[in-house]
Amino acid sequence: MLSSVPSHVKVRLGVMMFVNYVVWGAWYVTITNYLTNALHFTGTQAGAVFGTASIASIISPFFIGLVADRYIATEKVMAVLYTLCAVLMYLMTRATTFPEVYGLMLLFCLCYFPNVALTNTLAFQLVKDPGREFPAIRLMGTLGWIFITVIVGYMKWEATTGQFWVAMAASLVMVVISLGVLPHVPPKGRGTKFNARTALGLDALVMMKNRAFFFFAIASVLACIPLTFYFSFTNDYLNEVGVTNAAGKMSLGQASEVVMMLLMPLIFRYFSVRAIIILGLVCWVVRYLLLAFGDPNGGMWMFYAAILLHGASYDFFFMTGQLYTDQEAPPHLRNAAQGFIVFLTYGVGMLVGSLLSGAAVDYFTHNVNGKVVHDWHSFWLSSSAMAGVILVMILLTFRTNARIKPNEV
């Protein structure tokens, strides 16, 4: 690692993050709109297509991380994956049947989601002080997400193939960035003998021998379950109770995330990993209580507070977890370790959450005099209780004094 990192390298990493999240944000929040309105898929079919992201997060990043750790330079792995993403997005613009769309989106997600882990690890390896420098780099990803969702909405591409053309173009830009802009990052584990343990991705599981990391990994899975409840049904809930321009108000959550990312280096300086994660989970508990007791009249401030807590709820747990994982992983397994966290969070946790959230909504739905009524109060209270159980588990089991610190030079 260099004793100092040139500013132009940080700029390159920021551009990488920005465009990477443009690829994701172009379709993630609008694809079900396109599927149900343009292709007339059923809700079950649209939900199945949306779930390909979680399935891919379970399958792909872990194995691709092993390739980047041992055999091929990270930026070259990314270039191949983004090329495939571009081809698959083009084919999505022409697909019309459920089998076609489902198969193409599953293949696309299998190619895209490894890059979530790879871009994080590449940034961690190229900066001197991840705790201080990574938040600003990762912030560019959030800005990319906000930028493209605003563009897609402004151009009215939510129910058209325009979103896929954007994702295709951004994928091609990422190929250029990977091969022509990013520094060369050779695999640190090159020369390691191939064996079945490596092929199955079991090397990174050695980290589970660390008791603190073991409980952190379990909490990462569990925390993503209530997270999915928020992403899946908050917009529906706010619209149903009469909040005007709910989508616009929810964008304040991304704004709060931007602010929190800028504050993270200062937070890392004064708080331990354990304290930050605990504070993040407290925010989860509180935000669901606010959603449960808020209303669009006198209690509208509760809705605003719940939305604005997104920055702390997300960054305190997920960004801190990514940096903590990078510190705990052996140098030759850092890509695999980041893939492992993506596997646990975006994969297992969110897949379980997507299934449970739908079941929970059905459980708290009643037929009153022939009218369907959602008991949203109980739904959000159950979400808060779930986050509270995870908080208690962390308090009792996650024992570490670790802090996010600069890389050794």
Helicity level: over 70%
Shape: globular
- How many β-strand stretches? 2
The share of residues in extended strands comes to under 5%
Biggest pleated-sheet summary: 2 strands, antiparallel
Number of domains: 2
What integer is the average pLDDT? 82
Q: pLDDT below 50 for ≥5 consecutive residues: which ranges?
A: none
- Return the string of H and E elements: HHHHHHHHHHHHHHHHHEEH
Q: Count the helices. How many?
A: 18
Strand order of the largest sheet: 1-2
What class do helices, strands and sheet pairing give? mainly alpha
Please, could you describe this protein's structure?
- The radius of gyration is 21 Å and the shape is globular.
- The relative contact order is 0.15.
- The protein has helices spanning 7-28, 31-37, 43-50, 52-70, 74-92, 98-112, 114-126, 130-154, 162-180, 196-199, 211-240, 246-250, 252-270, 273-293, 300-308, 310-328, 334-363, 376-397; strands at 365-368, 371-374.
- It has 18 helices and two strands.
- Strand 1 and strand 2 form a beta hairpin.
- With 409 residues, the protein is an all-alpha fold.
- The model has no long low-confidence stretch (mean pLDDT 82).
- It has a two-stranded antiparallel sheet.
- Helix 2 runs antiparallel to helix 3 (43-50).
- It has two domains: 8-187, MFS general substrate transporter like domains (Growth Hormone, Chain: A), CATH 1.20.1250.20; 198-409, MFS general substrate transporter like domains (Growth Hormone, Chain: A, Up-down Bundle).
- The longest helix is centred in the middle third of the chain and has 30 residues, at 211-240.
